[in-house]
Structures are given as structure tokens and as C-alpha cells.
Specification:
9 strands, globular, single chain, four-stranded antiparallel beta sheet, mainly beta, 89 residues, five-stranded antiparallel beta sheet
Length: 89
């Protein structure tokens, strides 16, 4: 998924996006994804191939384990969301 206003290219190595919310004012993105069964994980890669003036790097707000360059989030039957925020410069 590409989010042009932030220059974000987001991909999942495992898991499936179900929705996205973009908050231009607070410079944040909420990524929702489906639970794929017991013990499932979402593996999110964040790239910013475009240089957008006034935009910093984005990262998950919560501390997530990183494996092979992807953020890992365990999924379950509750709300599965990763909240991305722009790093303070």
C-alpha cells in the first residue's frame, strides 16, 4: 500500500490489511489487519522511497520486535492495529 501524502510504502510479508486510517493533522497512520488463526503474526515493512518536504521517518508507536527488516505484531481475535507515527526531528 502506498500513502502518497506521507511518502510511505507499506507491505506485509505475512498477514492481510483490512483497513487504514490516515491522520494528516497528527501525521499518523493506523493499519488494521485480519487475524489469520492462532499464533498468527503480521510482518510489516515500512519504506519511504519518496522524499516529501516536511516529512520525517515513520515508525510503529509501540515497541515491536524486528525480524529480517520487518516489524512483527502478533494477531488475535481482538482489534489488530499498528499505529504509525512520525519520529520527532
Amino acid at each position: 500500500m502506498y500513502i502518497a501524502p506521507f511518502g510511505l510504502w507499506l507491505t506485509l510479508d505475512s498477514g492481510k490489511f483490512s483497513a487504514v486510517e490516515i491522520f494528516k493533522k497528527t501525521k499518523a497512520v493506523d493499519l488494521y489487519f485480519n487475524e489469520s488463526g492462532q499464533g498468527s503474526v503480521a510482518r510489516l515493512r515500512i519504506e519511504q522511497p519518496a522524499t516529501i518536504t516536511g516529512r520525517g521517518k515513520f515508525r510503529p508507536q509501540e515497541v515491536l520486535k524486528v525480524e529480517k527488516g520487518a516489524y512483527v505484531k502478533r494477531t488475535d481475535s481482538s482489534v489488530n492495529v499498528i499505529h504509525l507515527v512520525e519520529e520527532k526531528r
